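ARCHIVE RECORD
Type: protein–small molecule complex
Small molecule: inosinic acid
Source of inputs: curated submission
Record status: active
Notes field left blank by submitter.
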Amino acid sequence: MRNICFVTGNQNKIIEVEKLIKNFKLISTKDLNFYDEILETENTIKGNAFLKSSFIYNKFNINCFSDDSGLFINALGGDPGVRSARYASEISDKEKNINLVLKNLKGEKDRSAAFKTCICLIIDGKTNYFEGSVKGVITSKRLGSRGFGYDPIFVPEGHDRSFAEMSLEDKNKISHRSIATKKLINFLNQK
Ligand code: IMP
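STRUCTURE (tokenized, with ligand):
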């Protein structure tokens, strides 16, 4: 069985994907004894996903993939977007980020937004992208306490609960990340 590396520091993401991949052995950057942070300096999530995958592919010559996600709010011209993790301050702070979004949307009627994920896979020298998105609206206050990031202020289209009010299982049925991940898994399982 061939190895494939998931370029992420997030162990939960690895566990989730590991269960789904059938014909590759999933390894992490730790297995490569690589512990540095690859700075996400591009101005699109696609660019950042490519940056991380191409760095590891070139350094270790190993098939690999990485993901990048963000929350894109229409009335804010797509912000926080690619800067979602560090929207309010250089050190990522979920509460500050949510407060800034709510402040910037105060009095705004158009509260439409979308979470987007882009996965970049580099395999046998070829680059492939898998995307997922989920539309929704930004609430005027926090709802629920589960999840992470902007989950308490995002209600997906066709639902009446925020991501933070849903179980992880329910969120994963519709989330941007799971849509992109399913596309990746389908592709890899046919290899
Ligand atoms: P990452 O690329 O998956 O690390 O996501 C970057 C940032 O986007 C996170 O730090 C969160 O602020 C935000 N984000 C991405 N996905 C989600 C989600 O499913 N719920 C809430 N926030 C998210």
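CURATOR ANNOTATION: Residues 68-71, 84-85, 92, 115, 147-151, 163, 175, 177 surround inosinic acid (CB under 6 Å).
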